[in-house]
Amino acid sequence: MDFEIAHRHLQTSKLMGVDFLPSISVVTDAKGATQQELLEKLQSEHEDSCPHCTKVTGYTQTVFGTGNPCASLMFIGEAPGAEEDACGVPFVGAAGQKLDQIILAIGLQREDVYIANIVKSRPPQNRTPLPTEVEACGTYLKKQIEIIQPDVIVALGSPATKYILHTDQGITKLRGTWGLYNGIPVLPTYHPAYLLRNYTTKIRSEVWADMQQVVSKLP
């Protein structure tokens, strides 16, 4: 995968308002059905037992996760929004479309990676999940990671970064700096929603640099 060429394409494409360009698609080989079966069992357990999602109201359905159960790369966000709540799939709104572009830009398809949130039910008015909500529901994210066993995790935004890396530091300080979660390299970067709200050359360049770092860690 030639990232210098991709980078030149990226710079040229800015004249047309395109920020992330697809590269060669690489599909990871499946390791078997075991992980999928375990994820399905975990999802059923979550539906029945999550101390947060089984008690709160105001959401349509939980949004557990999507993608390759044997993925080398896992993206973690904070919680579902309105569009995700409506269809039961994470990152399908405007931020999800931007994430899809980012995934394509590093030579992968959405189905090659795994995408999940810390909290599986939509918070009221799309607010940031409360620390108590994160702690109550987050244990299922940890179990997802144990099953999938990704080689690299990308933490999208401050809540995901703080939870996965057990830190109080914000995303602006940690963005682009590698951390570890149970031996798995974790790279914090801006949430796609933040990228859309702050659509500057600087922020876009930082996200692109982060993703190049991610690819350098993938097997």
Blueprint of the fold:
Layout: H1 3-13, H2 34-49, E1 66-67, E2 73-77, H3 82-87, H4 94-105, E3 114-117, H5 131-148, E4 152-156, H6 158-165, H7 171-174, E5 179-181, E6 184-189, H8 192-197, H9 201-217
Helix pairs in contact: 2-5
Indicate the CATH class: Alpha Beta
Number of domains: 1
How many helices?
9
Please give the largest β-sheet: 6 strands, mixed
Q: What integer is the average pLDDT?
A: 89
Instruction: Identify the CATH architecture.
Output: 3-Layer(aba) Sandwich
Description:
45% of the residues lie in helices and 11% in strands. The protein has 219 residues and is α/β, with parallel strands linked by helices. The chain has a single domain, classed as 3-Layer(aba) Sandwich (Uracil-DNA Glycosylase, subunit E), CATH 3.40.470.10.
List keywords for this structure.
globular; alpha/beta; six-stranded mixed β-sheet
Tell me briefly what this model is:
By secondary structure, the chain is an alpha/beta fold. 45% of the residues lie in helices and 11% in strands.
